[in-house]
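Quick question, first post here. What does this chain look like in 3D?
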Amino acid sequence: MTDYHISIFYSREDRGYIADIPDLRACSAFGATPEEALAEVEKAKTAWLAAARETGKRVRRPSRSLRGASALRSGSPRKSPRKSPRKSPCGGGPLGARQGRR
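> Answer (accepted):
Ran it through. Tokens below.
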């Protein structure tokens, strides 16, 4: 079966679950439970695809096969890799870096 990959993770900031479809730009949804977030993102996907077709927007094919994959991963959410460390607003080194004694 080939369909769009859906990532579901808990957001502490939003105090709920976010479901996201990476292949469909800005297609995501919120839910109080993982199941609710999944149901909402399925609705969002349908609306996203319909709007894209109506406006002639190119619709990207699913990039992954879901054979044997689970829509919900357990454990802690994946952290996005940073391309470069955040700089301190005070002009020092990267945030979180240990500073040596002078």
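DSSP finds one helix and three strands in the chain.
The beta strands are 7-11, 16-20, 28-31.
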